[in-house]
């Protein structure tokens, strides 16, 4: 019985050895195959990439280059008109428009007639002016006779003084009514001519023939498009660095040529909502611009600033902020950078990289996914 058990155990062991030998004979080498290598290769930790992964993703790198005269920064801005370049034209009296001399969008010169308004008030001032002129004429005639009587000793000299005072009162009434009609551009017949206060373009026009005009309304707005300003939105990092007098440049874009100007004022406090400061800049010359358009503005520093330049393809957005994917000894790592400006197909950086740093310029989307562990 014991001998039979021993023989059975020996046969079982022999079978196991035979199966193992057959596996080795059929190709099992005990070494991982290419698929196993690839699986192991793709399981590298985020940020650590093998050479095989770099080739498969087509990732290429370039070195950051030193750049001189780096601008302080590039910020968004809106094109606006200076306060003196936008003037409302109001009617001095209530009335009705009887004639229009311009259309909306038309270029006008200072003093050019815009509309004619018929009003009752100029008639009243005209009538009062006529009465004042009559009183003045009467007072002057009476004063002349009074002076003659005084000279002949018929009446006292005080009477002449009274008549001279009456003349001064009448002259004041004439001058006051004439001044009101003159400043209003009105005639004694009751017509008021509205004129352009400055040269420019009729930007807004709400008047129409036969329509009413109120003394508090502005039927016309004239814009002088020969002068523009920029409202710059400075980030918190530039607070205290940007000063009046600094040069600004709006790069050429499409049909718009390069525009230069200078900072004229900088806000004193941060906006709590945007964490930014508003600065104003004046544009040199009279470029063909449209108020309200958004542009990017490059702020030039007073002196040369050190920095680096990289191909624009090396810059990517991570969490809404510019980054470069920096090559390290173990792979790649995202590095926050500060964009100072553009120069052709290269981006100028004022912070984040140093000359000689290698950054990825292709395969950035795939590389970011791998760095995120996806």
UniProtKB/TrEMBL annotation:
Biological process terms in GO annotation: copper ion export; plasma membrane copper ion transport
Pfam families: BSH_RND, CzcB_C
Keywords of the record: Signal, Transport
Record GO terms (molecular function): transmembrane transporter activity
Signal peptide range: 1-20
Every Multidrug resistance protein MdtA-like barrel-sandwich hybrid domain range: 86-219
GO CC entries: cell envelope; membrane
Domain CzcB-like C-terminal circularly permuted SH3-like stretches: 308-363
SUPFAM superfamilies found in the cross-reference section: HlyD-like secretion proteins
Gene3D superfamilies documented for this protein: 2.40.30.170, 2.40.420.20, 2.40.50.100, Helix hairpin bin
InterPro entries: CzcB_C (IPR058649), MdtA-like_BSH (IPR058625), MFP_Cation_Efflux (IPR051909), RND_pump_MFP (IPR006143)
Family assignment from sequence similarity: Belongs to the membrane fusion protein (MFP) (TC 8.A.1) family.
Entry protein name: Cobalt-zinc-cadmium efflux system membrane fusion protein
């Amino acid at each position: 019985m014991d001998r039979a058990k021993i023989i059975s155990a020996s046969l079982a062991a022999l079978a196991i050895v035979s199966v193992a030998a057959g596996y080795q004979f059929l190709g099992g080498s005990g070494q991982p195959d290419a698929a196993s290598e690839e699986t192991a290769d793709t399981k590298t930790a985020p940020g650590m990439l093998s050479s095989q992964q770099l080739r498969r993703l087509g990732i290429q790198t370039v070195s950051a280059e030193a750049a001189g005269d780096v601008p302080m920064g590039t910020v968004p801005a809106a094109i606006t008109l200076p306060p003196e370049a936008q003037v409302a034209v109001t009617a001095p009296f209530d009335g009705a428009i009887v004639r229009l001399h311009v259309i909306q969008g038309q270029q006008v010169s200072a003093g050019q007639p815009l509309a004619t308004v018929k009003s009752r008030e100029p008639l009243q001032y005209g009538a009062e002016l006529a009465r004042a002129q009559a009183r003045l004429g009467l007072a002057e005639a009476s004063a002349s006779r009074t002076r003659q009587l005084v000279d002949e000793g018929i009446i006292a000299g005080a009477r002449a003084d009274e008549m001279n005072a009456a003349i001064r009162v009448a002259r004041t009434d004439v001058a006051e009514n004439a001044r009101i009609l003159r400043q209003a551009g009105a005639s004694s017949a009751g017509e008021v001519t509205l004129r352009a206060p400055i040269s420019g373009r009729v930007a807004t026009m709400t008047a129409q023939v036969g329509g009413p005009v109120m003394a508090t309304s502005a039927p016309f707005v004239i814009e002088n498009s020969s002068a523009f300003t920029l409202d710059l939105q400075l980030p918190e990092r530039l607070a205290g660095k940007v000063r009046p007098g600094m040069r600004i440049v709006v790069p050429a874009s499409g049909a718009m040529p390069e525009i230069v100007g200078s900072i004229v004022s900088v806000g004193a406090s941060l906006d709590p909502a945007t964490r930014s400061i508003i600065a104003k800049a004046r544009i040199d010359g009279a470029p063909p611009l449209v108020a309200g358009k958004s542009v990017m503005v490059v702020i030039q520093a007073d002196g040369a600033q050190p920095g680096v330049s990289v191909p624009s393809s090396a810059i990517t957005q991570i969490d809404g902020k510019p980054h470069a994917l920096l090559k390290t000894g173990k792979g790649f790592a995202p590095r926050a950078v500060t964009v100072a400006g553009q120069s052709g197909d290269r981006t100028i950086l004022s912070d984040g990289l140093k000359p000689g740093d290698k950054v990825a310029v292709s395969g950035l989307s795939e590389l970011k996914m791998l760095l995120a562990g996806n």
